[in-house]
Amino acid sequence: MTVPADQPLFAFAGHRLLARGRAAEVVAAVKAATDAGDTVLTFDAATGRVVDLDLRGDLAASLARLTPTPEAEKRGP
User: Fold this and answer.
1) Which of 13, 27, 31, 61 has its CB 3.0 to 4.6 Å from that of 18, i.e. a possible disulfide?
2) Domain span at residue 31?
3) Residue 1, in any domain of the structure
4) Residues 6+ apart with CB under 8 A from 45
5) What is the C-alpha to C-alpha distance for residues 3 and 13, in angstroms, rounded to an integer?
6) Pairing relation of β-strands 16-22 and 8-13?
7) pTM, 2 dp
8) Per-residue pLDDT of the chain (77 residues; tens, 9 = 90+)
9) Domain for residue 23, yes or no?
10) Looking at the domain assignment, is residue 73 inside a domain?
11) With contact defined as beta carbons under 8 Å apart, do 10 and 27 qualify?
12) Domains in the chain, number
């Protein structure tokens, strides 16, 4: 599953809210927690569905796998 960098997510480590915000921000917290051995669940803030993040490699590699935010269509002249 591809995750847009600006998609709102929230993540829990056990019963504790670990992070919430844009995917690019949440990935950093989730990566650090999973590297420390925590089990983390990440959810789409809009639907509540579980989101699978690809956390292989270092943080830069995990962030690079997020899909870029599409630019807004220009209007007018």
Assistant:
1) 13
2) 8-64
3) no
4) 7, 8, 9, 10, 20
5) 20
6) antiparallel
7) 0.82
8) 689 889 999 999 999 999 999 999 999 999 999 999 999 999 999 999 999 999 999 999 999 999 886 666 667 66
9) yes
10) no
11) no
12) 1
